[in-house]
Amino acid sequence: MSTKIWYCASCGYEVSTRGRCHSCGQRLVASPLPELESGPDDDEVGYRLDQWDDLTRGRLIGALAGAGVLHRFEDEELVVLAVDEPEVDRIVERVSGAGAGLDEEDEEAEPVAEGDANAAREVYEAARRLRDDPTDMQADGALSEASALLFAADRLPGTDEAHLAALGRVTRRLLGALGADEALEDEIRHQADVLCRLTAPAAGLEQVGQEAARARASLEAGARQKGRQVELPHSRVTPAGEMVLVPGTEADLLELGERGGGVPGEATAGPGGDEPGTGSGAPTPAVPTGAVPDEELDEDLDEEEADDASGELVFELGEWLPEQRVELSLLLEGAGVSYNWDGPDLTVAEEHEAEVEGMFGLVPGLADEDDEARYRLIEELFAAVGRLANDPMSEERQQVFLGAVGAVEQPTPVGVDDAYWWRVRSQGRALVAAIEGTGRPDEISRDASLLAEMLHEMV
After folding, report:
1. 115 pLDDT band (50/70/90 cuts)?
2. Which 8-state DSSP code applies to residue 289?
3. Is residue 401 a contact partner of residue 385, using CB atoms and an 8 Å limit?
């Protein structure tokens, strides 16, 4: 019987239980593959890894998972099928030779391999296709192949270490959603959207322009729906501006904006106003420039007074992960809230303060601080769904369940596999649909029992 495995990408080991790494504390990553079962010696090949450091082992595990290579570890030996030996040889050579033994100066001077740049473009293209069509099986396969090279890369053009780690995390989440037993089209589309935004700077200037233009269109659509203007009182609007957190991208965006290459500048989209992009002015590059002084401000105002008079509010989000800043940008664009990124600092109009702070709770990973409270909500849901399974037509029990089911709409709890949590969420939604739809007692009871079984593993 195959065994589900989780691994730590930083410490380079695999285990059969979910949770956090006992060494570095990071959440373990769910492998899209089961563990290789033991077979005849003639059918297997072993690789000794006792001289490998933890981080290189972690990259190897990620590359094997991305390439779809079944494997297992026996102490310090990696075991794979003999038929996979040529592929594993290539992966081992690439991973073990990527930056090993470089000192700090050499690492800075090490050029990015052309193959790494191609891998970024291939990952971007596969993610773009999955964003458009989550059922595209060819794009699914293309992502699996390209991700193997991405996981093995020590660096990519236009990325720093934190950004490269974020690319790996989001790619694995997308692969996990693609490999889930149930159809997770919304999750696939969302993770693909985040991955496109993260990969664009490494993929090339054209891809950066495409993502910036897409972000602008999303922001304008959200603004039209809310009856808002796509502008800040003093700062430039920077749709997809969190990409400029990556070194070197700001100059690329400036160049693209000067050429009119699709990175939009300021525009308005409000009731009765002109459609964005139809004004007479040249497009302004979508790069953070900080607050632009108001010509009407008194020159004697000091900096603090000028900030107070600007009508803008700055959130310092340097502790956030790169993908979390992307998630926030997507939420802001969907709500039509104009924003500016200046490094990790986010600027919005003061009038949107409460709305933006509310979005923080919707960003995955930021709601994990109060784990005890999260699990209390899950326990309450477990109790409610168990009672509902025994008496599916009780209106009181239905209402208690509907009041508690929101617990599954929050980010994945600590120690729970993302793919498993998606299945719990899907089952919760199915039960809500059964109650609000057909109302058949047998269907409600069945769906409630299934959800209770899934929650039982967590409580």
Report:
1. low
2. -
3. yes
pTM for the model stands at 0.54
Name which residue leads in pLDDT, 30 or 322.
322
Say what the pLDDT of residue 134 is: 93
Cα–Cα distances in angstroms (integers) from residue 217 to residues 23, 175, 237, 239, in the given order: 44, 27, 13, 9
**Sheet with 29-34, edge to edge strand ranges:** 13-15, 4-8, 29-34
Look up tokens 């990409």; give the residue. Answer: 243
Alpha carbon distances (Å) from 40 to 14, 49, 80, 82: 22, 21, 12, 10
- Which among 122, 169, 130 has a CA at the least distance from the CA of 149? 122
The dihedrals phi and psi of 440, each to the nearest 5 degrees, come to -75, 130
Q: How many helices (H) and strands (E) does the chain have?
A: 16, 9
Non-local CB neighbours of 457 within 8 Å, separated by 6+ positions: none
In Å, what is the CA distance from 421 to each residue of 94, 184, 407? 34, 12, 11
Interval 161-175 mean pLDDT: 85
Q: What angle, 0 to 180 degrees and rounded to 10, lies between the N-to-C axes of helices 85-97 and 137-152?
A: 40
Contacts of range 133-140, beta carbons closer than 8 Å, 24 or more positions apart: 134/184, 134/185, 134/186, 134/188, 134/189, 134/192, 135/183, 135/185, 140/178
Averaged confidence pLDDT in the chain: 77
